[in-house]
Amino acid sequence: MAETPSLPFLPYGRQVIEDDDIAAVTEALRADYLTTGPRVAQFETAFAETVGARHAVACSNGTAALHLALMALDVGPDDVAIVPAITFAATANAARYQGAEVVFADVDPDTGLMTRQTLEAAMDRLQGRRLAAVLPVHLGGGIVDLPAVRRLADEAGAAVVEDACHALGTTMAFDNRPERAGDGRHSAMACFSFHPVKTLTTGEGGMITTNDEGLAGRMALLRSHGITREPGDFELRSMAFDPADGGANPWFYEMQNLGFNYRLPDLNCALGLSQLAKLDRFIATRRALTARYRTLLAPLTPLVRAVEPRPGSDPALHLFIVLIDFEAAGLTRKAAMDGLKARGIGTQVHYIPVPCQPYYRARYGEADLPGADGYYARCLSLPLFAGMELGDVERVVGALAEVLG
Q1: pLDDT tens, 21-43?
Q2: Residue 390, pLDDT score
Q3: In CATH terms, are 19-278 and 280-404 the same topology?
Q4: What are the DSSP calls for 11-58, one per residue?
Q5: Average pLDDT over every residue of 250-263
Q6: pLDDT of 130-179, one tens digit each?
Q7: For burial by CB atoms within 10 Å, which of 105, 231, 373, 403 has the most?
Q8: Where are the beta strands (DSSP E) in 154-217?
Q9: Alpha helix segments (H runs only) across 52-167
Q10: Mean pLDDT, the chain, as a whole number?
Q11: Pairing mode, if any, of strands 189-193 and 177-180?
């Protein structure tokens, strides 16, 4: 009897790269620009149109996007930013890069999301310091109650910067108005990531969307060393312009701000444009996989249950997160993950509460955030990516049922 071939390993997330993506990158390699060229602006324009924002600024990764947003707002050492405890470290780190202090907000233990109540509680811990920014995180693709966050931030004179790195393609309805994550109706800016496990990839890459032309221009300057080559912006006029004909000297540039090299190369934008063209298909696949997961997981309730979306939202999930009562199952999370791995199923935990990290614990002490602790104790991310098929979901849920007994 012939051996049955082993099934491929299913990671919790991975990129989907197709022949047209490879062709787009190959074409870019043969073009004149590998770093900053015409594809950057094309990608920015197409992305802004996709999410419904007026402006989009491409950058090197999602962390750079968050940092650029806070730089553009002039968040500094005398300021505080509020960040949810459940997120990747980069959300909080962006504030620290600017010298600002971080106050961590607790989260809903069943969604991992910042809420109006947890934001209010975090604001009560400001101790008289100026709140400059609130950074709600759309964890896994689930949407925070942005109007509530915006109202509280406005009352405090703070800007809202969405960490939407997980939420590309998610739609929601606040006050019965359909909206897209990143359209900027309730925030100054929204930040996205194009890491390979995200909904679309550029290899590494990020984007900030905004409806504020001034913020967009400032971020475009800051992502490239704070340097401008626009003659109309030059301050050192005697150096910038030829005394004979008054024209701008062709070699001249000015560094007007302390910026960074956060540019996204043309090569990456070529891949981004190709991926963006198939975003609707990727989202439809993720939604179909998510629906199948919910159906198949129902018999495992209450031992296992999926994180529920906000009423009125239609998330394009980046992560499929379940909450598991490991104590009731009689095994540790590591044992469950090991058992799934032995069956060819990759999983991950999103996330360790950021206040627990040694850097932040040393700076701010031990945090009392029961919602974050409760969420972290139960969360597990199961495989979800556009290259999966519905049969893969059956395989994952079957393996999970075996492991949990």
Answers
A1: 999 999 999 999 999 999 999 99
A2: 97
A3: no
A4: -S------HHHHHHHHHHHHSS-SSSSHHHHHHHHHHHHHHT-SEEEE
A5: 96
A6: 999 999 999 999 999 999 999 999 999 999 999 999 999 999 988 778 89
A7: 105
A8: 159-163, 171-174, 177-180, 189-193, 206-210
A9: 62-72, 89-97, 116-123, 146-156
A10: 96
A11: unpaired
Q: Which of the residue ranges 4-18, 57-71, 84-98, 381-395 would you say has the lowest mean pLDDT?
A: 4-18
Question: Cα separation of 334 and 108, whole Å?
Answer: 24
Q: Are strands 159-163 and 189-193 parallel, antiparallel or unpaired?
A: parallel
Tell me the CATH number for domain 19-278. Answer: 3.40.640.10
State the pTM of this model. 0.96
**Percent of residues in the chain assigned helix, strand, coil, to nearest 5:** 40, 15, 40
- For tokens 């919602």, the residue is 371
Structure-block tokens of residue 246 = 């008054």
Catalytic positions: 198
Its CATH architecture, for the domain 280-404, is Alpha-Beta Complex (3.90)
Encode pLDDT of 198-230 as tens digits.
Answer: 999 999 999 999 999 999 999 999 999 999 999
Residue with token string 């000297």: 249
Inter-residue contact 307 to 322 (CB < 8 Å): yes
Rg of the chain taking only CA atoms, in angstroms: 23
Whole-angstrom distance, CA of residue 347 vs CA of residue 383: 6
Q: Where are the alpha helices (DSSP H) in 279-332?
A: 279-297, 326-329
Helix (H) or strand (E) holding 104: strand 101-105
CA–CA gap between residue 175 and residue 311 (Å, rounded)? 12
pLDDT for the residue 310: 86
Q: Domain ranges in the chain?
A: 19-278, 280-404
